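Tokens as discussed.
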């Protein structure tokens, strides 16, 4: 199981659960995590999220999508970093998938 944390700007639905706040945590199988990320759900591994060092106050105050009125510069900078980590992860996963498909089609 992969422990992951949501870093999206919008909302994502995974099974019967809605993710709409930065900092929401989930536990997914490796395959479900890959499908979620490649499908556009902005999750990163929880250990990567922890390295960004969002404060508890930032997550409580600005994490929920509906409460991001005038977020602090600190929160915005950290969120941009978290979302870049997500984009990098998604790009790596996408490239890996394309390479695997190319190998299979050559057989």
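Sequence:
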């Amino acid at each position: 199981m992969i422990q992951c944390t949501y870093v999206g700007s919008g909302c994502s639905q995974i099974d019967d659960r809605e993710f709409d706040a930065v900092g929401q945590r989930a536990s997914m199988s490796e395959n479900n995590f890959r499908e979620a990320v490649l499908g556009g759900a902005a999750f990163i591994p929880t250990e990567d999220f922890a390295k960004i060092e969002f404060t508890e106050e930032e997550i409580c105050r600005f994490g929920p999508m509906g409460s991001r009125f005038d977020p602090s510069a600190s929160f915005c900078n950290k969120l941009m970093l978290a979302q870049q980590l997500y984009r990098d992860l998604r790009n790596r996963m996408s490239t890996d998938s394309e390479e695997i498909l190319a190998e299979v089609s050559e057989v």
